[in-house]
Amino acid sequence: MKDKMTIFTKGIIKENPVLVLLLGMCPTLAVTTSAINGLGMGLSVIVVLTCSNIVISLLKKAIPGKVRVPGYIVVIAGFVTVVQLLLKAYLPELDESLGLFIPLIVVNCIILGRAEMFASKNPIVDSMLDGLGMGIGFTMALGLIGLIREFFGAGTAFGIQLGTEITPMGIFMLAPGGFFVLAMIIALINWLSKGRAIKKKEIGCDVCPMIGTCSGICEKEEAGA
Amino acid sequence: MEQIIIIMMSVILVDNFVLSQFLGVCPFLGVSKKLDSARGMGMAVTFVMTLATAATWPIQNFLLEPYGIGYLQTLVFILVIASLVQLVEVVLKKHVPTLYKSLGIFLPLITTNCAVLAVTIMNIDEGYTYAQAIFNALGAGLGFLLAMVLFAGLRQKLEDSKMVPAPFRGIPITLITASILSLSFMGFGGIVDGIFA
Q1: Cβ separation of B82 and A70 shorter than 8 Å?
Q2: Which of A138, B22, B56, B139 is the S-S candidate for A29 at Cβ 3.0 to 4.6 Å?
Q3: What are the φ/ψ torsions at residue A156 (nearest 5 degrees)?
Q4: Nearest Cβ partner of A176 from B40, B105, B183?
């Protein structure tokens, strides 16, 4: 039972996919112009990640090793389409503001990474918990970034006006603000953990979920080999 | 013609994929430590984006739309891109070894680059004609290449610097640099409207 708890909680703080593993940067930066958008994106990812982890764990013996990545992509793309249609039907506003980034969940490296590194090697219940934990970690990170950007950029939180004394700095809602807020949060984590959390996990082949398919080519290239 | 120039200028400078739309941020941060690899990655992305658009636009308009199966778009596009990348790799390896040598190693990484899938979907959403779609993809790739090369140049200096405070070393300072670069790209804001005015 304790093991199961660890599997579930590690994605939330210790191995938070966004803030510690630094995965899935594109949606993290793009949709966090408000807390609601960030949480909406996070919830969509929880659904896709949990479902695809379950199905991939079930199919792990049926998918031949050589075509496993395309196999995972088909499973993930299926669930993304389901989420896309559901959002269009029931939450059209959210669908409008997330736009292009809903279909792009397919190529979110967190989902493919969990499929490759966890679900394809572990039983169903563990994979489900891993998916849920990672998804919740992702959602919390996006919600936090969204909240900060929304507060500074528009002076609101979850769409509610917070006083009128502060003049909103619109730049936080734009592209530079996204990069800046994420940089500050990661620097804060570095500072609080005295550099231990993200020490060796800089973006590179170590965290790239595709390392199995490219055999670390980009790292060799970076090293000038 | 005018239309195509406007599309290309806006996608390269104003709506730059990396710096204003946050597409392809992972390779932008991951493969930009050295100028050579940044250039190789940028060129490979440009190449695959253009090819992928050339393949997916007809699929959407002559296959998915007429048969009313537009909802399969995401699934079909990502599979087309994945198999296209494999195919290109094999063909280049066999017939154009010089090009393979410079681009080949980056190709497997591109399948899951969100910028490629994004440009193919965007071309459909914007309702571009075939020629416009191809030039939009080419421009998106060139914009990515430009951002990569500019950023790699900055980053080489940054890596050597001892002036960066400890908590900011590594990714945070890289993101701050990206933030400043994207701020300067915002300066291109009104440029497109003025071209033919």
Answers
A1: yes
A2: B22
A3: -125, 165
A4: B183
Q: Which candidate from B34, B37, B176 shows the least CB-CB separation from A183?
A: B176
- From the list A178, A155, A149, A156, the residue with the least C-alpha distance to A167 is A155
Q: Which helix (H) or strand (E) holds A48?
A: helix A35-58
A41-84, pLDDT tens digit by residue?
A: 999 999 999 999 999 999 888 888 777 888 888 899 999 999 99
- pLDDT tens column, B86-114: 888 888 888 888 877 777 677 777 777 78
Whether A157 is in a domain gets the answer no
ipTM: 0.85
- Interval A33-44: pLDDT, tens: 888 889 999 999
User: Which domain, by its residues, includes A204?
Assistant: 2-151+170-222
Q: Is A160 helix (H, G, I), strand (E, B) or coil?
A: strand
Q: Which amino acid is at A45?
A: V
Helices and strands (DSSP H and E) totals, chain B: 10, 0
* Inside any domain, residue A164: no
Residue B166 CA to residue B89 CA, distance in Å, equals 41
Residue B77 CA to residue B85 CA, distance in Å, equals 12
Within-domain flag for A18? yes
Nearest CA to CA, how far is B180 from chain A (Å)?
7
> What is the distance in angstroms between the Cα of B197 and the nearest Cα belonging to chain A?
27
